[in-house]
Amino acid sequence: MVRMKKPMSAWVEEYLEHRRSLGYALRIEGGLLSNFARYTDSLGHRGALTRELILQWAQLPHKAERIYIARRVEIIRGFARYHAVFNSKTDIPPANILGPAHRRTSPYIYSNVEIKQLLRRARGLSGRLRPHTYKTLFGLIACTGLRISEALGLRIGDVDLSEGVLTVVASKYRTTRLLPLHSTAVRRVRDYARLRQGLYPGAEWFFVSDRGTRLPYSTVRTVFTKLRSGMTGARRPPRIHDLRHTFACQVLLQNQCRKDPAANGVTILSRYLGHNRVIDTYWYLTGIPELLAQAACRFQPRHPPLP
User: Fold this and answer.
1) pLDDT in tens, 159-187
2) How many domains does one find in the chain?
3) Same domain membership, residue 226 and residue 195
4) Is the pTM of this model over 0.90?
5) Does the CA dihedral 144-147-148-152 come out positive or negative?
6) Catalytic residue (one of 71, 121, 147, 196)
């Protein structure tokens, strides 16, 4: 079935509305699809999508990494499958036509000394609330494995310090979960909450700037880049997200080193981290040599081979 020809922006808007009605957030994907629609409309294109048009748009950022270009194609492929329902002439590019669109980034595992150094530097920032905000923010991520988006998305009502529980609402997979905090973390978070409440009693968000407004991720990333000075990985500098990697690896290692390790430890951690699939949590077993070695030992035969 072919509908009356209309601008690509209208097709993309219809597609995004449909996908979001099914529970998909499509924040990054939505932005790229809208960009593709504007580009297509600027060319005056109407009708079916063509492979040439998709690849042409995907390769516009000439200095971008190949994996990012492939990811752009992958996002348009999903939209093209939808478009093909209404226009049978739509040309859907083959999967991985420009190579793989995903790659596991090797994590940077912080040492305890580096985490303490990071928090000490945060405490040295200027401002009335700013140093306490960043010290508490990065400290909370380090001891809970929260995603940075989840931490910045916490509202006042999501932090129950009387019970020591965080409510993470509509996280990466549009799910909500409860995170119990250790008593030592509760004390630090409570100290920050009291200070913020005194300065900005009407604040809506838990972590705020020195103006009492929600912290934008771009600002947090800029501050973090300054605080991590001197920390270098084998391939790239550490990220905020690597605090989550470090937390997961340390939890798994502590569980494996116990005399009676929890049989479902990985499953519990998976739920705590908000993973959609437990296989994503098992990937952390390769995060540090100690975990990989322990995992390998579990595959060794319990009995010597027969002669």
Assistant:
1) 999 999 999 987 666 778 999 999 999 99
2) 3
3) yes
4) no
5) negative
6) 147
Domain containing residue 37: 8-86
If residue 11 lies in a helix (H) or strand (E), which one and from where to where? helix 8-21
DSSP string, 107-152: PP---HHHHHHHHHHHHTSSSSSHHHHHHHHHHHHHHH---HHHHH
161 falls within a domain: yes
| φ and ψ at residue 71, rounded to 5 degrees | -65, -35
Would you give the DSSP letter of residue 76?
H
Whether the Cβ atoms of residue 248 and residue 285 lie closer than 8 Å to each other: no
- Catalytic option among 172, 177, 214, 271: 172
256-292 per-position pLDDT tens digit = 766 676 667 788 888 888 888 888 777 777 656 665 6
Picking from 51, 86, 121, the residue at the C-terminal end of a domain is 86
**Which helix (H) or strand (E) is 167 found in, with range?**
strand 165-168
Per annotation, catalytic residue among 51, 177, 214, 241:
241
Active-site residue 241, yes or no?
yes
Asked if residue 101 belongs to a domain, the reply is: no
Asked whether residue 102 is assigned to any structural domain, the reply reads no
